[in-house]
Design brief:
Nucleoside Triphosphate Pyrophosphohydrolase, four-stranded mixed sheet, three-stranded antiparallel sheet, 2 helices, 7 strands, globular
Length: about 140
């Protein structure tokens, strides 16, 4: 049986309506793919607490967690993942990536330029749909 991992991710947006994208380093699982930063939920943690902790550890900033973006189940070759992504905003600190090879701020329209980890793609698609709805209003 494959290992199952519950993970949370932050769709961090700034005042210029850009979204923070993180490139997985060559030594990480799924190397050189883009993702929304986050990580594993530890026993007894809520999604929000896990996400605040993971972003502090990975990026050195404090965030406030907003609405859920997407909840995705994905089966990789050696494990399965339940990835829940949330909108988030940085409230304090300067970005200092400790695990990722690169960080980029992109507009919703430019997210397709990146090679995303498969489990993050549904969140990217949902963001594009939400953005189109807001453009029409």
């Amino acid at each position: 049986m494959k290992k199952h991992i519950n993970v949370v991710a932050a769709v961090i947006h700034n005042d210029e309506n850009k979204i923070l994208c993180a490139l997985r380093s060559p030594v990480m699982a799924l190397p050189n793919l883009w993702e929304f930063p986050g990580g594993k939920i530890e026993k007894g943690e809520s999604h929000e607490i896990a996400l605040v902790r993971e972003i502090q550890e990975e990026l050195g900033v404090h965030i406030v967690v907003g609405d859920k973006v997407e909840d995705t189940y994905f089966e990789y070759d050696t494990f399965t993942i339940q990835l829940t992504s949330y909108l988030a905003k940085i409230t304090e600190g300067n970005l200092q990536p400790t695990e990722h090879a690169e960080l980029k701020w992109l507009t919703i329209n430019n997210l397709d330029e990146l090679n995303w980890a498969p489990a993050d793609i549904p969140a990217v698609e949902k963001l594009k749909k939400l953005f189109k709805i807001k453009q029409v209003l």
